[in-house]
Amino acid sequence: MAELKTFSRIPMRTWRWLGVNESRIPADINEHVKTQKILVEAGKEDEVVLTQREGGQYELQVHIEEGAKLHLVNAQLVPDDALYTCRVKVFVGKGATFAYTVVEAGARHTATELHVDLVGDDSKADVWGLYFGDGESVIDLNYVIRQGGRRTDANMQVRGALLGKSEKIFRGTLDFLEGSKGSVGREDEEVVLLSPNVRNRSVPIMLSHEDDVDGHHAVSVGKMDEDKLFYLMSRGLDLAEAQRLVVEASFNPVLDRIPDAELKAEIDTYLQRRLSNG
Amino acid sequence: MAEEKFVPKKKTYVEDIERTLYDIKDEDHSVYKTQSGLTEDIIRDISKRKNDPQWMLDFRLKSLAVYNSLALPTWGPDISELNMDDIVTYVQPDAKMTGNWQDVPADIKNTFDRLGIPEAEQKQSLAGVGAQYDSEVVYHSIQDDLVKQGVIYTDMETAIREHEDVVKEYFMTLVPPKDHKFAALHGAVWSGGSFVYVPEGVHVEIPLQSYFRLNAAGAGQFEHTLIIVEKNASLHFIEGCSAPKYNVTNLHAGCVELFVKEGARLRYSTIENWSRNMMNLNTKRALVEKDGIIEWVSGSFGSHVSCLYPCSILHGENARCEFTGVTFASKGQNLDTGASVIHAAPHTSANINTRTISKAGGMATYRSAVKVTRRAPFAKCSVNCESLMLDNASRSDTLPVMDIEGDEADIGHEAKIGRISDEAIFYLTSRGIDEDEARAMIVRGFVEPIAKELPLEYAVEMNNLVNIELEGTMG
Description:
The complex is a heterodimer of chains A (about 280) and B (about 475). Chain A has helices spanning about 225-235, 240-255, 260-275; strands at about 5-10, 20-25, 35-40, 45-50, 55-65, 70-75, 85-90, 95-105, 110-120, 125-135, 140-145, 155-160, 165-175, 185-195, 200-210, 215-220. Chain A is α/β, with parallel strands linked by helices and about 280 residues long. Chain A has one domain (about 5-225). In chain A, the strands form three sheets. A seven-stranded parallel β-sheet of chain A has the order 3-5-7-9-11-13-15, with no helix packed on it. A seven-stranded parallel β-sheet of chain A has the order 4-6-8-10-12-14-16, with helices on one face. Chain A has a two-stranded antiparallel ribbon with strand order 1-2. In chain A, α1 (about 225-235) packs across α2 and α2 (about 240-255) runs antiparallel to α3. Chain A is globular. Chain B has helices at about 20-25, 40-50, 55-70, 105-115, 115-120, 145-150, 155-160, 165-170, 180-190, 420-430, 435-450, 455-470, and strands at about 30-35, 90, 130-135, 135-140, 150-155, 195-200, 210-215, 220, 225-230, 235-240, 250, 255-260, 265-275, 280, 285-290, 295-300, 305-310, 310-315, 320-330, 335-345, 350-360, 365-370, 380-390, 395-405, 410-420. By secondary structure, chain B is α/β, with parallel strands linked by helices. Chain B is built from twelve helices and 25 strands. In chain B, the strands form three sheets. In chain B, strands 5, 6, 8, 9, 11, 12, 14, 15, 17, 18, 20, 22 and 24 form a 13-stranded mixed β-sheet that branches. The interface of A and B includes residues 18, 178, 181, 197 and 198 of A. β16 of chain A pairs antiparallel with β25 of chain B, so a sheet runs across the interface.
């Protein structure tokens, strides 16, 4: 087995045998990191759509000033045999909003870290993620939203499907810091397992040093709802078509946020093709 | 835009209060104590005094070697203030094990009387009682009709003498010393604890209870509980523990091994109320065979630091686990509690339901692991954990992990964290209830799912503990 090195760490450690404390990447990965900075000035609104089609290491540094809004779309469609890492660091000022739509669909090994600091009062993060694993792909995700300001609002919605012999770890952390009075946070992950050889690890973490907060997290892991499949098959679809339709429906809340119709159609086709192969 | 004035919300303030009943210290009348620390000589000394068979001495020495080879865990609460060189691992009380309450020395008897242990037995609400004081069990009794049915309930030392083959077959097979550093420590210095054997088809209708009291300052308690419930049998076992508070660190590293055979049912209830100088690093594990059921009811109120995650290995088809837990962390406490479940057979199911409360700077962590192996298609698991914070000096964290292999599992997890809502307080006060009582009612309601799982006397004890913790509450 190739040597690994640590890429990212969970905010609070747990039993080592679960293998979720660190996100590890192949040690021989190209050290070069392509870095991009995004600044949204106070009161402005912006939308940035990024499509990663080449393996390698990426870093996005995002600063959203007071009252500003950013919708960042980050679609990862790198070749199946590539290694891919992406670190996204986001600073959200007072009254500012960070909306993030992320698709992790390609690569042999994906490791991403999202670190959002809701520093300003009334700042907001609305994160919608989608991952898709097939073949022997490894997807290793570590998303953290730190809620430092008062009345901050964090929403983390993640949908995924695993086929083949794919493995995935999703760590999602909502961290209510002391002083984050009146803040709310919600985290949901829904995973559909489509092969007996997949491995899914879900780690929904909630940390709180403030009593005046309202935090929820929920995870649902399992095979496809048989009632839904039965309904669709009773309407004449075969099993594979019915499964495709159900997965697509679960992905749609994320895909619908992609403003670029061409990119959305490309991702849709890409996922459909891989679902058919699975 | 003008800065909006932030108006702090009214909140509960809870003073830490004296836990009088549990804090009464007896004079230390122990007849023997080992030197503090952990050496091969100390292990040999403990083993000799306990008249261990050779295999047990060998086991202890191997465990010591494992202990010395393992590092401290890199996760969980800080336990750096625990210095094993300061801990006395064996304290022999001035009492011989007896089956007659009148033969127990007066000061020890008074302690257990205060805690209500013999009273519950006399009221016939317990079918058997065991009482451990420091490192040795001083009293054990069981109803005659259970003995006639072949039920064994005795201290571990007697079990080794009278049922050596059974003990040898099961002892520390479920929690091997190499499991973690404190399991190895337990294997080296264990003393006392209970052994229960319920033969096939026997239903023990009234609970058995063992109570563990640690009186000596700077000492450790390392009792071993081994329960075997044979095919289609059932048992409810209750464990209680407390200690008076000292200014030095005490250590509890007990070990509980539960074997639930085919079609058997075991309920294991614990009300833990160790003193606030106790490091409670306890290991509990159950192996559940086909159609068997393990039910854990766990109340954690005491200790300075606790690491407690009862583990259920669902080894046989249709095996089930129900875990119900409440943790109340107050000033000076860091209580890291939860559960783990390993699904290792088809159609196994688990339900984990916990409540944690933190106040006055207390730290409460819910930590869990749900593992579904490839051998466990159609596994089902539902986890629900809710955390209530009574002030923002406290901490409340939840850290669950789900590790699912295969595609035939159905796993759900849900968690909530927050404070007592102003709407709920407003509703209750508008009905004429004063605010302190309204808050206490909400906290009692919050732990109700756990209280209702306990026998009446223990539900009352738990409510009393909640009331003690909330006393001094001010708006």
